[in-house]
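Side project, low priority. Logging it here so it doesn't get lost.
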Amino acid sequence: MLAATTLRATAARQVRVAPRGVATRTLSSASARAKVARAIESNDGVLMYSKSFCSFSHGAKEVFRSAGVDVTVHELDEEPDGVEVQKALFEETGQRTVPNIFIGKAHVGGYSELMEGVKDGHVHDLLEVVGIKSSLGSVR
């Protein structure tokens, strides 16, 4: 009887697990929510949640690299709890995609929002608030 219960429980878990990269409607785990909250709360620079294969993530990293800005990057596809962390990020920000970028505790958004913020000077202003000098200010 125990084996049958375990099998059903295992099958139920398999139903809830989505293939890599597919968003589900289930809530993130409490530990993933706490992990994201701690990372944002302690962030005093640029924090990016990314996937190593994402061209938009690569583009965002290049924007910061070319401006001489160090970025703390979490590659969600390389972290054991990456799916749960991405769910927690969605719950926190309303954004399902990567990159998911924070400057200090401020949520910038994804690649499009980053580029818009670079263009209008908002990203430069946020970097100044956290004490980071960059060449992004020259874009204005």
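Brief comment: The first strand starts at residue 46 and ends at 50.
Revisit when time allows.
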